[in-house]
Amino acid sequence: MESRIFRRVLNDTEWFASMIESVDVRLLLSRLYHLPAGAWNHSELQNGFWRLYLNDTEGAVLTADGLEVLLLPKTVYLVPPGRALSSRNPKEMTQFYIHFDLHGIPPVTFEDLIPTIVSVPDDAPFRESHQAWRSGGEIRL
Q1: How far is CA 28 from CA 35, 49, 71, in A?
Q2: Which residues contact 109 (CB under 8 A, 6 or more apart)?
Q3: Structural domains in the chain?
Q4: DSSP class of 22
Q5: pLDDT truncated to tens, each residue of the chain (141 aa)?
């Protein structure tokens, strides 16, 4: 069942654009780690911030809200705040991750839009933004 906020976001692009313009992203932590097998085995993590994960190999698993997600290599995953989260890596991997907050958008906005773990589509604009970010260039939204 769609919520009022979900319908508004989908049907009112002007409102959504003005909301996005007022968003402030606060970076809490950003790391690139090589993790031996089992080093990312955590249960019942729960925090009030967003998480972004990008791994170099297949095999790591995130579990949230009863949903188990096998993380594919070179795919970006977003985890919204407030979710009980478990993770595990049965084999070694290299992981890039970011913890961040979004200010300017009421958290309830995302309850329907991003209710649990989501993967970011691997498309040309995303790859170009990622490459620009890695080289210190300008990111276009």
Answers
A1: 20, 9, 22
A2: 5, 9, 19
A3: 24-121 (2.60.120.810)
A4: T
A5: 334 444 444 555 666 566 667 778 889 999 999 999 999 999 988 778 899 999 999 999 999 888 899 999 988 999 988 888 999 999 999 999 999 988 877 766 777 677 788 888 666 666 676 677 667 665 554
